[in-house]
Automatic annotation (TrEMBL):
Residues 1-216 form the ZP domain. The lineage of its organism: Eukaryota, Metazoa, Ecdysozoa, Nematoda, Chromadorea. It comes from Toxocara canis. Pfam families: CUT_C, CUT_N. The keyword Plastid does not apply. One of its GO terms (molecular function) is structural constituent of cuticle. The gene is cut-1. It is a single-pass type I membrane protein. This is Cuticlin-1. PROSITE patterns: ZP_2. The chain crosses the membrane at residues 282-308.
Amino acid sequence: MPSYSIALDRIAQCGLELRRNPETKELEIFTVFVFSFHPNFVTAGDRSFAVHCIFLQQQVTVATKFNFISDITTKGIIGATAQMPTIDLTIVPGRVPDPALEPAHTVVVGEPLMYVWHLKANTDIYGIRVKDCFAEAKDGRKMKIIDNGCSVDSLVVSHVQYSENHRKAFSDGMAFKFPDVEDVWLICSVTTCIRRFEHLIANDEENLCDSQRKCSQREKRSTKITETSAVSVYSIDDLVNHKLRVIDSPAHALPFRQENNSRVIEDGMMDDVKVCLEKRSFAGASAALISAYLATVCFAGGIGFSLYRSHHNKY
């Protein structure tokens, strides 16, 4: 049977959309396939199919066995189901790190944005740790913007900061886009960590929530991605993403009003118009204007002198 496989790090390039449902713990890959039977025209035989691939979260049962000298009488059984915390990424306009605000979907290049990673449910045990973030376009172009919680390019996004209880992480930045495309996917690998308590003793602090990272010594603007780092972001279980449509900022032009099918510049707008010239261009233009002025004066003087002589000869 014919088959075709697509790597997870190429789903955006192939037009597929990755969705995560925090309530049902389902991971969905969605796309639309269009079958066209003519290379140039749309015909009645064309068909399109919306495909939803849903992957259920795997449940693992953990058990252990104790060997004692004598058997222990079972007094009772306590059963419970532990709900794993889920992390979500919300990008909001402005500079307030509040995930309850309306998410940003369509923005303008240079518009201030706030990246907010937050836990979906309240918990007194777990916190958030932001690892890496990538910006990716539909054509496969990608750029790493956050490396282990630290900004790669401060012009795009700042270092990740955490709230005191580590339930929320945030970073501010400016809206940006790849040339010639408007859709940008922000994909981040995140994980949960255990909050630090005074009575908590751990030999390995890898799973404990970190304090604020020191990112000042990191090398900035290093956007080169190796093959390993480009794929590693997709091999993490906790993967969050947010899609933005980023449009170019409008060109700076003089405002006008339309009267009788003609464009008229608004009153008072010409007062602020300034033209800058280089010194050589300014000198050349000045010399040309002076030459034209002298030539005009000489020509007018010659005509006046000729008229005067002709009038004097008559009398």
